[in-house]
Task: inverse folding
């Protein structure tokens, strides 16, 4: 106001009142990592400035973690060191002044946790078992989001025997050689990947199902010594002849086919006769076996056969002779009318170094009439 006598000023303040209005809502979903602080924000206008009441799962939150940013006109809620148990859930805020109130849209906070992998069994990373023993590996796998869990053996996926909650189990009631390998469990979610390995070693003691036995073979023919052995790991087999180790050669052929191990002596000759020894060792068990090789010639008749019919005078002595050869020297057995002939005072059998076998009959009788046969036998044949 002003006149010739002077001026005067007056000041008045105009307040425009407004009910709370949210200009930036809470997000519908929010994620954070366990232990990492997260801030929820909502921007609001209103006069007078609205008061804020934050709620977690409909429970009021203390105001010490709430602040107002004047520049942004924004209420902020700081969630400190969140965990799934204490912080995961639904958050909302009610804004109120004298002219009214409004409520934010709810925000669901998800607290993520890295993979937590705990091996329950076995206690060691390397397991040594024998064939037939039980094997089990079990793991507790946690994390948020739920991890994807995979078990592989030597790079190939295998299925768990059971999965209950976080416990993952793979079990074998009786291990076999094919179960040996490195088992790797991998658990992965958004935050991390964890791995752990268990190496299974399977062994089996030597089980000889067919033993080494003595061998008789013909001169000039091949002879094969063999044994059958089940074991794991596959055993190393070493052959010896009179304590000299044998190798593959034109004379000796050493073979291993699955669980059958053999030594073939080509064109057997007399120098090949002797003791053969095999040593079987798979690092878990050890055994040795021996056998003898005999090289022979089939018996044959060397002298002219006696006449098909031979006469004798009753009461007088008579003889029948055959000469045989063979290696080893054959054993001669006499038969009368197809039955073994027992020796007694009247029937005597003699042999000479040249291989002649003689049957002597003293004081021939009428009942001695019949067919007399001599059979020569050795380890490789008979005649």
Result:
């Amino acid at each position: 106001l002003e006149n010739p006598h002077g001026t005067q000023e007056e000041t008045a303040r105009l307040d425009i009142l407004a009910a709370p209005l949210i200009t930036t809502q809470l997000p519908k979903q929010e994620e954070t990592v366990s232990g990492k602080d997260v801030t929820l924000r909502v921007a609001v206008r209103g006069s007078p400035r609205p008061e804020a009441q934050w709620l977690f799962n409909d429970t009021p939150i203390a105001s010490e973690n709430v602040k107002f940013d004047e520049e942004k006109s924004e209420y902020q809620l700081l969630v400190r060191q969140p965990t799934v148990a204490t912080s995961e859930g639904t958050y909302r805020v009610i804004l109120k002044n004298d002219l009214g109130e409004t409520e934010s849209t709810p925000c669901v906070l998800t607290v993520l946790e890295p993979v937590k992998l705990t091996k329950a069994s076995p206690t060691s990373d390397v397991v040594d078992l024998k064939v037939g023993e039980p094997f089990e590996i079990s793991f507790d796998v946690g994390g948020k989001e739920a991890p994807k869990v995979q078990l592989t053996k030597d790079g190939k996926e295998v299925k768990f025997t059971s999965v209950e909650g976080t416990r993952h189990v793979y079990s074998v009631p009786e291990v076999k050689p094919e179960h040996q390998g490195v088992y790797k469990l991998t658990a992965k979610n958004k935050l991390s990947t964890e791995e752990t390995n268990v190496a299974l070693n399977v062994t089996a003691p030597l089980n000889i199902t067919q033993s080494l036995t003595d061998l008789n073979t013909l001169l000039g023919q091949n002879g094969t010594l063999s044994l059958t052995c089940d074991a794991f790991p596959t055993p190393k087999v070493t052959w010896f002849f009179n304590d000299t180790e044998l190798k593959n050669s034109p004379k000796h052929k050493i073979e291993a086919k699955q669980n059958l191990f053999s030594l073939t002596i080509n064109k057997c000759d007399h120098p090949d006769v002797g003791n053969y020894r095999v040593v079987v060792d798979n690092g878990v068990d050890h055994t040795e076996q021996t056998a003898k090789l005999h090289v022979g010639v089939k018996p044959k008749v060397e002298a002219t056969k006696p006449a098909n019919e031979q006469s004798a005078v009753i009461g007088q002595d008579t003889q029948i002779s055959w000469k045989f050869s063979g290696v080893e020297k054959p054993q001669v057995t006499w038969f009368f009318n197809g039955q073994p002939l027992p020796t007694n005072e009247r029937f005597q059998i003699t042999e000479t170094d040249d291989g002649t076998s003689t049957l002597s009959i003293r004081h021939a009788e009428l009942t001695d009439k019949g067919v007399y046969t001599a059979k020569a036998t050795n380890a490789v044949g008979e005649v």
Observations:
- The chain has four domains: 18-105, 114-204, 211-296, 302-382.
- The helical segments are 84-87.
- Residues 18-105 form a domain with the Immunoglobulin-like fold (CATH 2.60.40.10).
